[in-house]
Amino acid sequence: MTTHDVNASNQDFTRYDQVTKAHTYRLAESPSDEFDDDYEICTFDISPYLHGNAKDRAKFAEEFGAAVQEIGFSIITGHGVDAALYDDVHERVEELFTTISLEDKMRFRAKRHGSVSQGYFPIKETSNIHPDLVEGWVWCRRAFDMPQSRTTPLKPEEFWPDVKYEPVFRRLALEHEKLFKPITQAMFQGLGCDPHLYDQKLEQTNFGLRLNYYPPIEAHDDAAGGGRLLGHEDVDLFTILPAPSESGLQVWNQRSGKWIRLDAPKGSIIINTGDYMQRISNDRLPSTSHRVGKPLDGSQTSSARISFPMAVYVWEDEILDTLPGLGKPNYEPIKAITFHTRSTSKFYGDDYAVNE
């Protein structure tokens, strides 16, 4: 098998996986794929957990935790983030990708900063293993004027093609940061663990804010079966994804062996757990496969798609170890930078891995 093989399977890359992923699926959407139209991803109002009493919090954690343990995905409302902010960010993402020249974008070509590949990803070059039909841009905490352990002043021009964008996307990062601890606490509480085990690790922790711009698919790519974003699992604790206005997100249902089309309500947030969380939860919270395929209405050839997921990480020196109370560990303790870069070298090449 060669890279950029449209028939490639996830099992072709299992040597990079740092958690167990026994199921098999094709990375790109295929006419032979089956879809589970009866399964519905659960939606929860998180406001009782954010503002309620102990009984309210326990009830939410039990229900939310059970849903995430079943499939690794859920939808939350009542999160407190103004939907108008999401509308503004949507417009700014489109502006960023459509008005800045490719030459200027390429000055910020993605490279590793700590664990995370940060910077600009040209279309068809978001990974080495598949020609995804998306442009991407990732910023970590280091790129923002936010409270953090940085010892040197931020120089926005080192990260941003136009410094006017930093405060715009910082607003989004700050709003989502308020949810890091409550979401983690609810997941841990749903497992029967101390909900505050990661409170200190999540104080001013690292993250990856990724902007995705999927231009209309050209006819030859559409005819060749090109996919907008290959099937994958996130490498993080969990991802915060404001509901995109355009369809295409597909989630793997391991129980049925079929895909689920996920269209969340406007203003809601999609939450999915990643490899970090599967590792520390002793496989109780799965890192669920997902991808961006073609919407049923065929609008991929005429309309762009925009999304801005935020991946929640711990800093590179933290140790990922099985949470107490979850039985005999399935995995040995491992440093976050080693875990992260071994996993993502699947996308960026074997020399991306850092072993510490």
Describe this structure in words.
- There is one protein chain.
- By secondary structure, the chain is an alpha+beta fold.
- Helices cover 27% and strands 19% of the residues.
- The protein contains eight helices and 16 strands.
- The protein has helices at residues 47-51, 54-71, 83-99, 102-106, 165-190, 219-223, 275-280, 336-348, and strands at residues 43-45, 73-77, 111-113, 116-121, 135-140, 207-214, 229-232, 238-242, 249-253, 258-261, 269-273, 290-292, 305-307, 310-312, 319-320, 334-335.
- Strands 1, 2, 3, 4, 5, 6, 8, 11, 13 and 14 form a ten-stranded mixed β-sheet that branches.
- The two termini are 30 Å apart.
- The model has no long low-confidence stretch (mean pLDDT 94).
Annotated CATH topology: Jelly Rolls
The helix/strand class is alpha+beta
User: Helix count?
Assistant: 8
Gyration radius over CA: 19 Å
Percentage of residues assigned to helices: 25-40%
Question: Which descriptor suits the 3D outline?
Answer: globular
Kindly report the name of the CATH homologous superfamily.
B-lactam Antibiotic, Isopenicillin N Synthase, Chain
| H/E element order | EHHEHHEEEHEHEEEEEHEEEEEH
In the CATH classification, which architecture applies? Sandwich
Task: Please provide the count of β strands.
Answer: 16
Task: For the structure shown, list the relevant keywords.
single chain; 356 residues; alpha+beta; Jelly Rolls; 16 strands; 27% helix; globular
